[in-house]
Structure formats: C-alpha cells, structure tokens
Specification:
Number of strands: 13
Strand order of the largest sheet: 7-1-2-6-3-5-4-8-9
Number of helices: 11
Order of helices and strands: HEEHEHEHEHEHEEEHEHEEHEHH
Helix content: 25-40%
Largest sheet: 9 strands, mixed
Bound molecules: threonylcarbamoyladenylate, magnesium ion
Length: 344
Amino acid sequence: MSRDNTTFQQTVLEAATVLRNGGNVAFPTETVYGLGADARNIEAVNRIFAIKGRPADHPLIVHLADESQLPEWAREIPSKAWQLARAFWPGPLTLILNRRPEVPDAVTGGLETVALRVPSHPLAQALLSAFGGGVAAPSANRYGRVSPTTADDVRSELGSELELILDGGPCQVGIESTIVDMTSASPRILRPGAITEEDLFSILGDNLTPVTPSPVHCPGNKPSHYAPRSRVIIATHDNAISKVTAWHIRGNRVGLLSPSRPPDLPSGVSWLDFTKSNTTQAMVLYQRFRQADQLGLQILVVVMPPEQGLGIALRDRLLRAAGLGSITAQMSDHTVESLETIPD
Ligand code: TXA
Ligand code: MG
C-alpha cells in the first residue's frame, strides 16, 4: 500500500470513529459537502441542527454505502424504487420511502417517510463502508446559505464547530441531488438535480410526475434558498445588458454571470464566467455565488440556462436564489420576466 493510500485509510477510519463516538464529520459527496452524524444517534443528529441553525422539523437525508441497506431504513419498498436504485446508485439521487418505525424522528422531522441516498464520491463511499451504518447529512452550510462544494467552503463557514472535515477536492456535480418521492403511485420529482427527468423516464417510463414543489415544509422548498448575499436578478441572453446597466447606473455594485463576456459590458461591472455547458455550470454555480459575495456585489444578474436536461435543476436553484422559488423551474423566461422587479 502506498503512503497516500495509508493516509487515506487512516483518515477514513478516524472519521468513522468520530461518527461512532457521536461526533460530526463534514465529508465530500459528488453533489455538495455534507455535515454528517450517525443517523441512529439522536444527540449527534440534533447537533447538526444546532451547528446549521436549521429548524428541527426539517428532515435530513440518510446516506448509505449501498442499496442493500435500504430495508434497514425503509419498508414497503416499491419495485420502481429498486429499479432507480440499481440504475443510479451510487450517484446524485435521493429516494423518499416509507420509513421503518425505528428511524429517529430527529432525522425525518417526524414524517412517516425517510430520504435515502448512496453517494458515489470515493471518500464518501469509503467513510460509509467503514462506518457501516446510515449517516444523516444535510449540506454543510448554515441554514438558507449556499451549499459548499469544496472543503475550504465548509472550513470558512463551519470550521470552528466541526471535529473533522474530510477534503475530497471540489465536488464534480456541484448542486444537490435529485429528490424523488417514491411513496405515491406515480413517483414525483421534489427537487431537480443531475439525474434528470429524462434519466428517470428512461427507467420508469411514463409513470413519472414531473417536478412539483414538495408539500412538506423543507429548506429546499423555501421560496428563497441556496442564495448568496448579493441579490440575484434573472435575465436572458438578450436582456442581460439592459438589466446590468439599469442597476449599474443607479450606483449599485453589479456583476454578470453569463456563458461569455459581452463586448458591451459597462466598465465597472464584474463578469463571472458561467461556462458554456450545463455540466460545468452546475459545477461552478455555488463557487460563483461565493465569488459574488467576496466581490461585495449588491446585484448579480444571471443569464438563465435553457429549460432542458440539467438546465431544469440550474433554473430551479437560480429561481430560488432570486427569491422566486415558489414557482417551478419549467416556468418560461417570459413569465419569470413579468415577476422580476425593475429598479426605479
Ligand atoms: O446532494 C444532496 O442531497 C446533499 C448531499 C450532502 O447528499 N444533501 C442535501 O441535504 O442537499 P439538505 O438537507 O440540504 O437537503 C435535503 C432535502 C431537504 O429539502 C429536505 O427537506 C428533503 O431533502 N427531505 C428530506 N427528507 C424528506 C422527506 N422525508 N420527504 C420530503 N423531503 C425530504
Ligand atoms: Mg441544504
């Protein structure tokens, strides 16, 4: 075994021990960094809420090493859930299933259902295998803030309160997992993510209800969430410059997040590179939000990606960041436009 490999194993064993002793560990997943606790240890789970400042009735996702552990947490698992688990785990998909009665209320927020996911990041996989049980973990950020996609993001936000932060590099997906409710006759997407509606459709056929805001009160469903301190203004390719200009000439510190730098960008306005493919846009989105805050931008105008594939999840996060999260990500640019406030 190489030295690096030995260090990796030691770190993983140390983290598993912290979890076993009722401590909290921040760890990377392919989506965002999670703030973990032994899901069967109520005190450790409660500490997650205290660290995040998150209301106690908001349920957490339980992370597992592999799908064989599903029956330890869920009951009446429908065959469609097994099909999705086999197709997309390990990966950025969370399934909502009926919980086993012994799953702590602290994890489910008192709901009769439980959220389960098998992440694919090698460090998450190693940690979950070494620990052996379920790890309850929300994203490792303070309540309502932007999810962390690097270990440094976690360190700067929660570092002083955490026993251990595992560093697995920047998250490759960059936005939170797709959540699918499997407890109704036709599975429902509660939160869009990198496993797209088309991906789910390819396994389930037409038994799928598209993205619907969850009836459950949960942080991902607050109208304003995943937001930087800068105010996010939604734009299209065609009207981005006029929006930027409108805010800029009124003396605001403005930035533009768009796939390319417009030649007519007013001087004094910062350009933030949103890249050109949906995959890299998801990877950089939260980094750009953080960058906007570091630059002290008051206004961040964002060019919306098209409504297809991963673009649906990106639009969902952008609309929430703009405080327009109660409408669905499929809403047309025109409708979003009519809801947007224009400076006066
Ligand atoms: O990618 C992810 O899912 C990341 C990584 C760390 O795995 N986790 C994450 O957790 O985004 P969190 O807590 O920030 O968001 C989990 C979402 C919340 O909106 C929560 O309300 C919802 O999952 N959720 C959890 N249990 C639920 C349930 N039983 N029914 C409906 N929604 C549920
Ligand atoms: Mg979160």
